[in-house]
Amino acid sequence: MPTDDGIAEFLEWHRARVLRRSGKLPAANTLRTKASRLRVCLNVTHSTGLCDLAIHIQDREMLDELLDGLALRMTTGAASACFYALGSFGEYAKAKGWITSVALLPTDRPPSNPQKAISVYSPEELQALLSASRAR
What proportions of the chain, in percent to the nearest 5, are helix, strand and coil? Predict the structure, then answer.
């Protein structure tokens, strides 16, 4: 993949937009995550740059293929970060005039990662654990 994929320009636009809207700059980690997730999307779609990726998020069928590809490669939580990065990028692509609409819908957001089960100990098991720890 080329090193000049246009992501730096997108991040500058995003930084200025967030500053204009909220009065604060986005966190550096937020920008790194957006860049990383967009690179994953570029990889999944075999796009050579952001202009190519924009075409994928304007067309519903191509977007579904992208979302399916993300689902195969990562957890739902990581794919959710891609969803938000694509949403921000879609606004940028419209502002640049690359596309006229974004096919991404709120219902496309993957669910959060499932919560791990919590082990609940019986009073007897809890007493055995406490006794073992006190014996040390």
Answer: 70, 0, 30
**Cβ–Cβ contacts within 10 Å for residue 58, how many?**
19
Neighbour tally for 120: CB within 10 Å: 7
For the beta carbon of residue 109, count every other beta carbon within 10 angstroms.
16
Model's pTM, two decimal places? 0.77
Interacting residues of 14 by C-beta distance below 8 A, sequence separation 6+? 26, 31, 34, 88, 92
Chunked into runs of 10 residues, the chain (136 residues) has average pLDDT values of 73 96 95 95 93 95 95 91 95 96 93 79 87 81
Question: Which among 100, 75, 81, 2 has a CA at the least distance from the CA of 41?
Answer: 81
